[in-house]
Amino acid sequence: MAATSRSTESKSAKTIERVYKYVQKYIHENALSPSVRDICAGAGLKSTSSVHAYLRKLDEMGLIEYRPGMRRAIILKNTEGSEAPSESIPADVVRLTCLGKITAGVPIYAHEDESESFYINKSIIGSNDCFLLKVKGTSMINAHILDGDYLIIRKQDSCDEGDIIAALIGDEATVKRYGYLNGQPYLFPENELYSPIPFNTAECKVLGKVVGLHRYSIS
Amino acid sequence: MAATSRSTESKSAKTIERVYKYVQKYIHENALSPSVRDICAGAGLKSTSSVHAYLRKLDEMGLIEYRPGMRRAIILKNTEGSEAPSESIPADVVRLTCLGKITAGVPIYAHEDESESFYINKSIIGSNDCFLLKVKGTSMINAHILDGDYLIIRKQDSCDEGDIIAALIGDEATVKRYGYLNGQPYLFPENELYSPIPFNTAECKVLGKVVGLHRYSIS
DNA sequence: CTCCTTTCAGAACAAAAGTTTGACACATCG
DNA sequence: CGATGTGTCAAACTTTTGTTCTGAAAGGAG
Questions:
Q1: Looking at beta carbons, which residues of chain A come within 8 Å of B124?
Q2: Which CATH architecture has domain B2-76?
Q3: What band does B88 get if pLDDT is binned at 50, 70 and 90?
Q4: Which residues lie closer than 8 Å to A151 by C-beta, 6 or more apart?
Q5: N or C: which end of chain A has fewer CB within 10 A?
Q6: Lowest-pLDDT range, A45-49, A189-193, B126-130?
Q7: What positions of B carry a catalytic annotation?
């Protein structure tokens, strides 16, 4: 009985470490768990039963998770570089930063505030080439775009009739609806208090189309 | 012939995306690849051969790696190298999932849809005990809340006059403005076509206050 | 040297999971 | 209307892989 504890710690320790190392290596390299027979070859053992015993021991030691019956189901339970960190941003989520404020009469500022950035699913906005602008003013109130809203703008050079777009008029940025009046292109505010602005290509430039809106001041 | 390209993209696209999503989800959750039969159950297919075909297609599309014969050997071949998308969610960002649709006359569904969840900064909404509801109907159009908008609701039992809240009337959920009429509490729609609803504590229950709004259908 | 314990090997077994086949439903096209 | 193709399903079939069993080699202890 006294000899039991000594031998289990001494002789097998080497092999068990080799097995563990190999499992680590395999998962690291192949991003999938090795089979028992893989480990046989990799750790220099010729018997599946031996490997089986070691895997069980490693499970008891808490180093791996070895679910009975499941194929290639070893997962490393280490604190280190495991394959599934608690939570990370899915690949289809993109972070947008607010570039500045947009209105009739205010130019775009380079991002003034770190805290004004949001995470948005790519699939929702259809592209990851987007940016954020904060609305100043009420010129689009009839389109239900309010002062303080954040607009998600998908970058594009042109637009269709009826699109709500962000545009540069001279060096001022605004959000308006694009349309035609008497065959001429105009930028229409959605507020009776403002007048349509002729869209002439010399001074005007389409920044992008409004594809989303975030509002955090509800009243 | 002309229709070929369309049909191959349309009908199977839904299912293949469902399969892909499930594989992603499974691997994320369990850190090991699902079996074909797992995917059957998870993606609503009843035949292993269908799944098999989809997996092959996904392999061809370069989205996954599917080695023939190997058990549980699907690995995601994401655009960004491996499993770790370098960037992780900052501590002050919380993920909200859409619980269902809210309107005059429709109960809350608890449908879990991957695509309908957003990441939002805690600091913006002031709390992490929030949830998401999708607006159905136009009863709050004068408050610039439209059909299809996603509302961020901060859970709370009571509210102040003037707050826009999500409330349960009987077993129907709606969003309305809370206020008083002749000393009695009412839920006010913001649309002339609807009438205020008396708020009696026997049938009505405050779910929470609307603190944010996301809109992805701009028109 | 014999007994005992530990460890490994080889084989056999059982179950899980990948693969294939054929059939049916449905739509599209000529 | 029939021909073709696609998507799905059900049921086999095959392979891989986890598990167990028995026995043999190795090394100490008495």
A1: 216
A2: Orthogonal Bundle (1.10)
A3: low
A4: A102, A132, A133, A134, A135, A145, A166, A175, A210, A212, A213
A5: N
A6: B126-130
A7: 139, 176
pLDDT of residue A76: 81
Distance between CA atoms of B193 and B104, rounded to whole angstroms? 12
- The A-side interface with B (CB below 8 A) comprises 30-33, 35, 70-73, 75, 82-85, 87-91, 93, 95, 115, 117-121, 123-125, 141, 144-146, 162, 164, 210-216, 218-219
| CATH code reported for the domain at B93-214 | 2.10.109.10
Kindly list the domain boundaries of chain B, sorted by start residue: 2-76, 93-214
Token pair recorded at residue B19? 């399969």
Contact A109, A171 (CB under 8 A): no
User: What DSSP string runs through B205-217?
Assistant: EEEEEEEEEEE--
Per-residue model confidence as pLDDT tens digits over A187-206: 999 999 989 989 988 888 88
**Which two tokens mark B73?**
């050997």
